[in-house]
Specification:
The chain has 429 residues and is an alpha+beta fold. It is built from 8 helices and 20 strands.
């Protein structure tokens, strides 16, 4: 008998949530067959069968949070595959109770704070998942006991609980009360949605919910400031044209993104306080440069990181970008890939438009967003004379956290990135 346990999903991850079982009790499985899917706040992971045999006991129903090395199921290697497999529901709960609702740890936390029984919540998420909005809606609909005396006017409970959660995260219970998404703030209330013919209501999937929560938290936590640089890429473009075929033969795409990342890494080493994170009443300048690369996947945007990026050559950076992007789009990214990034580069691609101000990926203190590369008329100096030339030009927008990064530092950092690119200061080997 072999125990199948919750794997180590990342060095900073202590537990995972069972999201979906792909087998039932009594099923015969083969070695490396996918048994179930588990999720953390960072990534989804498939758990494979360590050996062939019959599943004899599922210990954690969908929606259950299991610590690392916690039991998921058992596989009997000696059991023979049954001639006919009778479908059975996975892991019924004990003591006559129904299985735990499928939801995330943060949603369960919100339900506890609002006093909402998840068993009574009508789910609207994928695969019957209870979402944050489902909990908030249930909290609004729940009957409230009549007070003994005339109540003092106050905001509805639904406005307070999510705000308190944010406040505790931001100030440890301080006095700031942020707006509640979808509800309002102070005297302003969001108009209720009225269904119209042809409207399509699309529930947030898990990744979209995590992204939405992250973006709201980042905007409330970090005072965002943006500075923009115009970069003449003529020299870098020529350098790329000289070497891209050689790199391609070696299986490494030499993209403009790789050059931008290499320039960012150089500037981060020269401006270490941009490679930092804010603590409670202090900040830490981080030793390692772990460069996050925003990647658009079928399930939404994720940010895997190149670990120790400052120790890589241009070829190494380019190879890591290609490898991470490929695994991200095929769903093979791990929780460790998404952990411990220290700075982020976002590349919207061929349809990126002129430039844009990205939201900082927490707990980073800055993010660089690339704009489109477009041929423009520029002024160049030749033999002491100014002339008009047509060069590829790109705008770079740096969003930074004004709590610890001042304008002088931010502008010096971005100027150096642009300087490296405009002069093509790269070693191409």
């Amino acid at each position: 008998m072999i125990d199948v346990v919750m794997p180590q999903l990342g060095e900073s991850v202590a537990e995972g949530t069972v999201t979906k079982w792909l087998v039932r009790d009594g099923d015969h499985v083969s070695r490396d067959q996918v048994l179930l899917e588990v999720a953390t706040d960072k990534a989804d992971t498939e758990v494979l069968a360590p050996a062939s045999g019959v599943v004899t006991g599922i210990a954690a129903a969908a929606g259950t949070v299991v610590p690392k090395q916690g039991l998921l199921c058992r596989i009997d290697e000696s059991a023979q595959a049954p001639a006919v497999v009778t479908p059975a529901a996975p892991a019924p709960a004990t003591n006559g109770e129904s299985a735990a609702p499928l939801t995330s740890p943060s949603t369960r936390k919100l339900a506890r704070e609002m006093g909402v029984d998840l068993q009574r919540v009508q789910p609207t998420g994928e695969h019957g998942r209870v979402t944050h909005d489902d909990v908030v809606h249930a909290g609004v609909q729940a009957p409230v006991a009549a007070p003994l005396a005339a109540p003092v006017p106050r905001a509805p409970a639904v406005e307070v609980s999510p705000a308190i959660e944010l406040t505790q995260l931001i100030q440890g219970g301080g006095g700031f009360v942020p707006p509640v998404p979808g509800v309002g703030f102070g005297a302003y209330k969001v108009p209720p949605y009225v269904p119209r013919p042809g409207d399509q209501v699309i529930p947030f999937n898990r990744r979209r919910r995590i992204t939405a929560d992250h973006m709201v938290y980042s905007k409330v936590t970090s005072p965002h400031v943006v500075t923009v640089a115009e970069v003449d890429l003529q020299a870098t473009s020529k350098l790329r044209d000289e070497h891209k075929d050689r790199f391609k033969k070696a299986g490494v795409p030499l993209t403009f993104l790789a050059f931008v990342c290499a320039a960012v890494i150089r500037s981060l080493r020269e401006h270490p306080e941009v490679n930092a994170r804010v603590l409670d009443g202090s900040y830490v300048v981080l030793r390692d440069v772990n460069l996050g690369i925003a990647v658009d996947t079928p399930g939404g945007l994720i940010v895997p990181g190149i670990k120790h990026a400052d120790q890589l050559s241009l070829r190494g950076v380019a190879a890591n970008i290609d490898e991470l992007a490929g695994r991200a789009r095929s769903g093979k990214i791990t929780a460790d890939d998404l952990s411990n990034t220290t700075f982020t580069v976002s590349n919207p691609g061929l349809k990126g438009n002129l430039f844009g101000a990205a939201i900082i990926s927490q707990p980073n203190v800055a993010i660089l967003r690339m704009g489109e590369i477009k041929k423009r008329a520029v002024v160049v100096t030749r033999d002491g004379e100014d002339a008009i030339a047509i060069h590829p030009v790109m705008f770079l927008a740096l969003s930074y956290d004004h709590r610890i990064i001042d304008g002088v530092l931010a502008n010096s950092f971005l100027w150096r990135v642009a300087d490296v690119l405009s002069r093509a200061e790269f070693e191409v080997t």
